[in-house]
């Protein structure tokens, strides 16, 4: 009997750590030992019942629900003969709780709640009678019921149960169960639409799981990925799921594998990888059907339908079969009380009918869609708005179509205003992409009048670079996030040294990538990024230009358009192929990178330089010469789009010697020029390691400023530099830098004790008014949907810096030092940053690819 109990305990431990296959082996050994003759009947029945309860869970996880329920039926029948009334009540209560969990796992929520209520009532009676040993079981059942209430959109009831669990666990010392409840509370908040709150709860649970039970992290990652998909971070969600799926498959946790595949399909769909989305959705659906989870299987079928609908909407006339499938699935989902998903399937059917040329039927279908709930997912609301706009457009009502687009983007903005961390704020733009593209296309179809140009300007400002539309609130790094960033810094340093020594780097690279991902996930739970500013109007921008011109580029399909604001007028100019301009910008960027090395042989420099000049000339002909009559010799403010964010404007002939400022949006430029800031003063000059020309460069720059503070190589430590940046007027950092395309906020500057990351500089309490980054490529950004550029310089601008000078391509040490000396000489004579940089770059534009970002 003792050995049987030991095997059962081993099984419970394995099951709690999400290892049901291992648990099942222990349970079968326990059952075999209970068949030995001479065992006390009551004790045998008790242990056997407990073993069957655990076995039911494991079989349901690795097989089907029916496999698990059969074990419970056997146990319930056997317990009826147990003479010890008190023991019988305890075991029946445990049986009810187990049956509830099995039902919850496959979506039969209300049925499961009826069982868990019985379990909770039993434990509440024990606790009321002073039996403290009831707490562990009570917390488990309360957490299960709280999670179930969250599944059926009763967040208040869910939170009540889960908060009580957290309090009981804190009071009685049950940290893992408390962390499980915190995880469950995160799920409730996610379903209620509070994504930042959910991510904070996940981060809290993550800390405990990592320390005490890492096996529980797999399920946590699945739920984190669902939250990320809901705010548009499909690429991050995909990476998260790709990490955990191999472990889940090895452990054969059927439901979790299926759900992970389902969300991987959803992430791939958002990311535009339709093939992967279809494969993952099909695999998830097959697993869920085998498990006896028809509700979840229908959700997987909906993702597969969305893939087919996406393809059909791109065709000339979608097949009626796709519409019929959508309506059939909508009926199945509604019958299973999955109303949000049913409504989404019906909206898809309506969109397909519009595409098929039957807006009347589409309108009838849409009228029968239930009214949206307050907590309906944002992507559902965006697609509903899009469908209404498409119906209005099919009926010739452009005004209503644009009104739907405006309302949808306003709803998306309300979600974004609640988000913390630049990744979440920028990622949310993904959900409004189609609405924005529709609106821009409609305005372009109106013609090229001044009125149309003004309307287009307003729509572009509503849809692009929204993360720069905030006045950031004062924020500091969470202590755990700070520790993780320190670890990333240490690993980055170790990797750099290993590469210099020619040592193997694969293991270090893997550890660094994992540490970066961990730090980034902690950053997702930050408090809201800032206070939103209103979108700039053409009149406000023109009033602020003060003799300058602003050119805002945009693309619709393959058409590239420029809006020029100058001399009190707004003009629209159609420039030609966006794809050609993109390719030309990329070739120019590649040439400038090749031209950067200091010791490049002169013949090779001449060949590459000639190629760069040709590409610059082509790009100039495409982008700026058609605007020559409008721009005249005015200073420029440029709002790029897509690949144009990499262009160092000073290399284009039209911009030779002309002050040019690049801004993520007109709204961000206007905000930077108007921003009321605390007084800042002084000049900070920082010299990083490994730059041959930096010693003389920094000493030379100090001669231009009477109030300069120098941090030499040995003093330029990360903590010292961050402290010195706070409240300074001008900060110049001469250090090697690198743009990190996959994790833009880990773009970095190399200091003596390791990397200084964009993550950190973006949260300096009082950002410098002007920052000069005399390093390679730190003007580069990862451009997300919605023209959301994110990188080192972008983090500074989003964090409150007014102007950033940085290179958009690689730059040699010597030309960088010379350009910076000329730039600071200009500043010392009272020139603005934009004017000083234009003069400095003009001396050797192809070797000095610096740009002025922000206000200028």
UniProtKB/TrEMBL annotation:
Organism of this sequence: Saccharothrix mutabilis subsp. mutabilis
Domain CHAT: 614-840
InterPro entries: CHAT_dom, TPR-like_helical_dom_sf
Source lineage: Bacteria, Bacillati, Actinomycetota, Actinomycetes, Pseudonocardiales
Pfam families linked to this entry: CHAT
Domain of life from the UniProt record: Bacteria
UniProt name for this protein: CHAT domain-containing protein
Coiled coil: none
């Amino acid at each position: 009997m003792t050995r049987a109990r030991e095997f059962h305990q081993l099984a419970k431990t394995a099951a709690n750590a999400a290892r049901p296959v291992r648990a099942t082996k222990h349970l079968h050994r326990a059952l075999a030992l209970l068949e030995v003759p001479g065992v006390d009947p009551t004790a045998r029945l008790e242990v056997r019942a407990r073993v069957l309860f655990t076995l039911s869970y494991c079989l349901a996880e690795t097989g089907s629900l029916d496999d698990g329920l059969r074990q419970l039926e056997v146990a319930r029948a056997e317990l009826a003969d147990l003479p010890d009334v008190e023991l019988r009540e305890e075991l029946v209560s445990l049986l009810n709780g187990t049956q509830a969990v099995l039902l919850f796992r496959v979506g039969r929520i209300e049925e499961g709640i009826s069982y868990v209520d019985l379990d909770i009532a039993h434990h509440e009676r024990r606790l009321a009678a002073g039996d403290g040993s009831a707490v562990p079981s009570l917390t488990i059942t309360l957490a299960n019921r709280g999670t179930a209430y969250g599944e059926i959109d009763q967040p208040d009831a869910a939170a009540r149960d889960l908060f009580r669990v957290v309090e009981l666990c804190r009071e009685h010392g049950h940290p893992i169960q408390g962390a499980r409840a915190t995880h469950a509370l995160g799920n409730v908040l996610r379903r209620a639409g509070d994504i930042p709150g959910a991510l904070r709860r996940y981060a809290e649970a993550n800390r405990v799981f990592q320390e005490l039970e890492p096996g529980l992290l797999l399920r946590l990652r699945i739920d984190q990925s669902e939250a990320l998909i809901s705010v548009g971070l499909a690429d991050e969600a995909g990476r998260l799921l790709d990490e955990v799926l191999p472990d889940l498959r090895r452990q054969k946790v059927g439901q979790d594998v299926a759900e992970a595949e389902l969300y991987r399909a959803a992430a791939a769909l958002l990311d535009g990888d339709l093939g992967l989305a279809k494969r993952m959705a099909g695999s998830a659906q097959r697993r869920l059907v085998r498990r006896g989870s028809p509700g979840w299987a229908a959700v997987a079928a909906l993702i597969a339908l969305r893939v087919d609908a996406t393809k059909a909407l791109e065709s000339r006339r979608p097949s009626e079969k796709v519409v019929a499938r959508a309506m059939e699935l909508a009926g199945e989902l509604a019958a299973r009380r999955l109303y949000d998903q049913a409504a989404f399937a019906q909206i898809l059917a309506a969109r397909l009918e519009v595409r098929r040329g039957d807006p009347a039927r589409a309108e009838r279908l849409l009228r029968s869609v239930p009214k949206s709930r307050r907590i309906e997912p944002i992507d559902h609301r965006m697609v509903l708005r899009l469908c209404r706009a498409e119906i209005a457009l099919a009926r010739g009502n452009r005004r209503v179509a644009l009104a739907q687009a405006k309302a949808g983007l306003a709803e998306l903005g309300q979600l974004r205003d609640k988000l913390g961390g630049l990744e979440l704020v920028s990622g949310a733009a993904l959900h409004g992409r189609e609405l924005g593209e529709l609106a821009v296309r409609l305005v372009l179809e109106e013609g090229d009048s001044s009125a149309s140009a003004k309307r287009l300007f307003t729509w572009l400002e509503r849809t692009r670079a929204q993360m720069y539309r905030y006045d950031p609130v004062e924020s500091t790094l969470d202590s755990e996030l700070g520790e993780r960033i320190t670890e990333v810094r240490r690993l980055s340093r170790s990797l750099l040294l290993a590469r210099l020594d020619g040592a193997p780097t694969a293991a270090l690279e893997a550890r660094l990538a994992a540490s970066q991902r961990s730090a980034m996930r902690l950053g997702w739970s930050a408090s809201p990024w800032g206070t939103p500013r209103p979108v700039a109007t053409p009149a406000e921008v023109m009033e602020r230009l003060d003799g300058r011109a602003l050119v805002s580029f945009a693309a619709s399909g393959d058409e590239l358009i420029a809006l020029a604001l100058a001399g009190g007028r707004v003009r629209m100019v159609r420039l030609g192929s966006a794809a050609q301009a993109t390719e030309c910008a990329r070739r120019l960027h590649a040439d400038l990178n090749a031209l950067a090395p200091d010791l490049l042989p002169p013949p090779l420099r001449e060949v590459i330089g000639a190629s760069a000049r040709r590409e610059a000339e082509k790009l100039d002909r495409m982008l700026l010469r058609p605007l020559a009559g409008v721009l005249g010799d005015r200073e420029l403010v440029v709002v790029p789009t897509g690949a144009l964010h990499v262009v160092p404007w000073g290399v284009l002939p039209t911009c030779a010697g002309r002050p040019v400022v690049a801004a993520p949006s007109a709204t961000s430029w206007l905000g930077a020029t108007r921003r009321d800031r605390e007084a800042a003063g002084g000049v900070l000059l920082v010299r990083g390691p490994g730059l041959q020309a930096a010693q003389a460069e920094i000493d030379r720059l100090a001669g231009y400023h009477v109030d300069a503070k120098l941090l030499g190589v040995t003093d330029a430590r990360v903590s010292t530099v961050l402290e010195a940046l706070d409240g300074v007027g001008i900060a110049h950092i001469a250090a090697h830098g690198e743009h990190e395309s996959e994790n833009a906020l880990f773009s970095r500057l190399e200091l003596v004790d390791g990397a200084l990351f964009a993550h950190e500089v973006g949260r300096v309490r009082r950002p410098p008014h002007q920052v000069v980054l005399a390093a390679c490529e730190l003007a580069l950004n990862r451009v997300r949907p919605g023209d959301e550029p994110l990188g080192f310089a972008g983090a500074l601008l989003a964090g409150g810096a007014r102007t950033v000078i940085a290179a958009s391509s690689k730059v040699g040490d010597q030309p960088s030092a010379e350009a910076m000396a000329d730039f600071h000489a200009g500043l010392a004579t009272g020139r603005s940053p934009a004017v000083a940089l234009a003069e400095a770059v003009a001396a050797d534009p192809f070797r000095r690819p610096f740009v002025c970002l922000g206000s200028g």
